[in-house]
Task: structure prediction
Amino acid sequence: MAEELSYVLLTPYSLVKSRTGGIISRLLARTGLELVGGRMFAPGPELASAYADVVAGEPDPKHQAIQEAIREYVRKKFVPAADGTPARVLLLVLRGENAVAKTRTITGHIVAARPRGETLRDTYGDYVVEDGKVVYFEPAVLAAPDVASARSHLALWAKFSDSDGGVLPESVIFPAGENVETTLVLIKPDNFRFPNARPGGVIETFSRTGLSLIGFKVHHMSVAEAMEFYGPVLDVLLDKMREPIGKRARLAVEEELGVPLDDPTETALGELLCPIAGRAHWESIIQFMAGIRPAQCPPEKRALPGTEKCVALVYRGVDAVAKIREVLGPTDPSKAPPGSIRKEFGQTVMINAAHASDSPENARREMKILRLDENNLKPLLEAHGMCV
Result:
């Protein structure tokens, strides 16, 4: 069976309630599909109206009232609020065999005979009827009913992806005088070795910060990007490794040759070997993030997308940098406190689940390197034969 693209659209309420991580965990772990794209949107009236016209396509007559409720929900909830604040929605694109049917199954129907929390809507959606009237409706997520609809819906969102999508700093309003910051998080490649709940688990843990998600991008870091992104790390490595490298080299020489060395010789060994060892460790980081070491990558191929996948998240809120880094934990997972992301999901100093900017200035630098404003939704769809 050929691979398909499907999508899941997280509603404004799901984002406000920080349910992104739980939804992504269910999607990836239960469907086995690959997350290949994602983009934040602040839909304008034109996009909301166009999507409302096509989103509800279930033919069963007994469900027409629900279909109309979905259309009305999109018309009212996807547009800016009365004060002009945009509504945030998150489009996730998934790929795999029978992707649309699998996505539809895990999404679930908004009305379940016996809700058990098995589907996304069982867990996160609500459909309350009293005296024959709908008094509360929250679908949590939206998805296409069939392959043709999935293709047309994705093409519609791609059409508006430049005007209505991207990083959305204006989508969240804060009182004057607050220390509002924007920061970057990278969910690292070790979370994407196979479809599993880990990426969602990392996002779910970050939701404890109370910050707002305003940007989302699935990214394959090139060698050139990784070298620039982790450029400052090289100097840090050279500084930190000089002394321990000298001690290890001294011990190795004394044990192997039986020749005692003095402290100045140990220092000299550190100065000699640290640039080699430090660079080798740094190249291992690049390989982990991009899939190949710089020394093994021809210069003309360094700008090409790498083989490893990460997800870039942009958070905004009061003291965002410190809040994110507190939840993330220290670089070494063995030293991270219980409940932190690196304690829960990290393995080593390098394979430690996620990266977070250490200052607003570095966040801006890192977001620029990764081209967070880049619209990679259109190229993704075009690569799968869709006209957008």
In short: The mean pLDDT is 92. Residues 1-166+373-388 form a domain with the Alpha-Beta Plaits fold (CATH 3.30.70.141). The longest strand covers residues 89-97.
